[in-house]
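hey team, just a heads up i'm posting the complex here instead of the shared drive bc the drive is being weird again. everything in one block, sequence lines first with there labels, then the predicted structure for the whole assembly after. its two chains so it's a bit long, scroll down
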Amino acid sequence: MARQIGEVILDLKNISLRFGGVKALTDISFNVREHEIRAIIGPNGAGKSSMLNVINGVYHPQEGEIIFRGEHRKDMNTHEAAAAGFARTFQNIALFKGMSVLDNLMTGRNLKMKSNFLQHALWWGPAKREELEHRRKVEEVVDFLEIEHIRKTPVGRLPYGLQKRVELGRALAAEPSILLLDEPMAGMNVEEKQDMCRFILDVNDQLGTTIVLIEHDMGVVMDISDRVVVLDYGKKIGDGEPDEVKNNPEVIAAYLGTQH
Amino acid sequence: MFYRETGQFKTSYAADQQIFPIRQDRIGIVLLLAFAFLALPLFASNYWFNAILIPFLIFALAALGLNILTGYAGQLSLGSAAFMAVGAYAAYNFQVRVDGMPVLLSFILAGMTAAGVGILFGLPSLRIKGFYLAVATLAAQFFIVWCLTKFPYLSNNSSSGVISVPNVEILGFKFDTPQSRYLLVLTIVSVLALLAKNMVRSTTGRAWMAVRDMDVAAEVIGIRLMRTKLLAFAVSSFYCGVAGALYAFCYLGSVEPDGFSLDLSFKILFMIIVGGVGSILGSFLGAAFILLLPIFLDIALPALSELLGLPFGSATVSHIQLMIFGALIMFFLIVEPHGLARLWQIGKEKLRLWPFPH
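-- predicted structure starts here --
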């Protein structure tokens, strides 16, 4: 099935974010189309993670507008964002270390569970039913990411590469429409990167999930993304298809420095 | 050799998600319950019921309450004794002031009162964490004990806040023997432990642990931090409250506010630290360790010194007892910082392989 890139579903307009006197983001606009893989790149401290944090409501920008599926908002809040279908992974793994892989993934589905704590305590009716239904869904993710052998292992005991994969799993368990990945390949070796790339492409291809990712590995970014936005010092300096961005003089200057 | 799950295949998620997935565990728990419900009441003496079994169960319940809050939801609290006090005094007031109030209902209402108070003192947890939160819960500890002493209404105008509870009677049956009180406490504790286990293995418990392990990620996933933390405070205080009510009604018979001092809170905290933070079993093991070990040493040491003909006076023996107790706590914490429950788990994993190394 050929992948069809659709309409714009997420449009960020003139976003500015300040922490006291520090301007993290200045007047940034870009959009994300349905089903595409959109990369955000830039040198360290360019504001990439801040950008993701604005998108899913961890940070609230002082200026600008976020248009998601035609709905205009000044900012998002985390709960609304999660309910609207945003899921994300973090730059430094933010798994629940004391819980098993299965429990981490089940937690990813918490918004889809409606039973309350009294029903849980009695393990009665909806609580039990939900637990089984969602387990089935979670097992699909486990299958997809090929982590069957570690399902019951506490996450804290897993090696780094697998933890990254479980974190992706936790995000996928929520069946998101937009997946935000903050450096999914940081610190991985080549094989692990290849695996991760394959999973990202499969998610995009088979599940149709829109993906916004931050990544430093330029080879990966240029290979898998449809469009790239480049940030430097909190400003947008480039936006377009990988080839376009690659030849943008400003982008080259930001990465390699200019000749004075 | 005897403890392994080889050959026990799970063919449905329901079978895989039961409380005790391993058959030997199921047999073990049935045997344990049968022993506690059937064998012990036949053989144990009144001393055992009054001085060992009943307090052990009550403190295990309080430790379980604190473990829900601290072990599962990650909110440190030093107010457990105060929540027990709320439970004890609330149950007393419901009994004294409402005619014909069933005892069990007054226990539940006492738990709910404690839950309400717990939510109130849990509010700071929305802003502060860790040691700072522990200090904030100290406020609960001092404030509640002060209230109970200060307002005579709460103790039905008795002098200095001492309350003497009426006898426990359910449906005409009087719980006036130690044996019957033991069975009552055992039933309540078993049911509440089962409910706690169910909570921690479902969405509620996962939300608590998520907040404990990584609150930012939990929030991003859509877990509401405020609701989750306050629910943990409420459920935890409910358990402590019921434990407090049992403490007054089934153990001491009469209590005073100063009995629920900071010392008691620390004792409960030590129980979960020694027993295992974030483990239901650990609450029981910890309570057993902290309560039973001193009693055991009390009996064993004088006997031992007499047997060996050592020239120690009784004062020296009691000093030695404290030293051994402290040393054992340190020993267990060094051997396994995650507590006795973890030690038990490691033992089980070793047993799966025994007697073959691989």
